[in-house]
Amino acid sequence: MIRIAVDGMGGDYAPEPIVKGTLMALEKFDNIEITLFGDETKMAPYLKQHPRLQVIHTTHFLEMGEKDPIRAYRKNKELSMFMAMQHVKDGLSDAVVSAGPTQALVVGGHFIIRRMASMPRVAIAPIVPSLDGRGRILLDSGANVDFKPEHLLSFAIYASIVANKVLKREKPQVALINIGTEDSKGRDFDKETFALLEASKDINFYGNLEPKEILTSEADIFLSDGFTSNIVMKTMEGTAKGMGMILKREIKSSIFATIGALFMRKALKRFKKSLDASEIGGALLMGFDGIVIKAQGASQSYGFMNGIRQAKEMVDANVIQLVSEVLTKKEAVGE
Q: What is the DSSP string of 252-301?
């Protein structure tokens, strides 16, 4: 049985979508047990008894606008997010899922769960939409800005294992986001990273990738520093939202367009679904000694359920042990 700790009070609309998403996950997956941390009084209107659900009460939780998560952690260990993470640290859960503040989750990961000994840094790794509908791993999308090339190589190895074991890509390819496809493009950092990735026997290196190819590329993993990848991710989110608004405007522009849209209703629903973040669930915080999933702050119940699904799949694939074995072996041979 896979054991998952859930922060019941994290998110813009918590606790309703979190509790409902948790119950959806319990109904959908019969091999999970969930421990839900939060204010029972506030969660009560949405809670139902379930044999694989345990609720641990706390009245304390992080506001989404928390500006100093380190201070918050030091001041109060009874915050729902940190209690859920402690559950993982104590070996009582295999993974934690929260829609709470991203930086607080990163702080909790460092102070409570701790980093894997073989991972020098932590990365935020969401799965972004793609033309073929299979999604791609993008990292680091914001945990760090200042990297060394070897840090990106460790991320590439971790992401390759996730792509292979969880996303079922036979030989996942890693692309380095850059301003051009030529080997000589980019900053000194990009050139050094390119050389390191190209020489590695632990990944399948695709080469440089221009951001304009993000949705159409055959590569399975998009890699860069936290600043660049975060801009790519937010540009994608803004473009998808803008496209939807333009499409809606044009449909309403004339009676003929409205009638045409009625005939295309199924196609338009598929279009919306292909760009819908709730289909993905959340982002993996890659590098901690436990599975940590950051669900979207605006998660509704379906999206949060998918965040729990992600956690389940990561644990089921034994991702952390596999990554540790590969990186430890690299260190042993002095690579």
A: TT-HHHHHHHHHTHHHHHHHHHHT-GGGT-EEEEETBSSEEEEE-TT--H
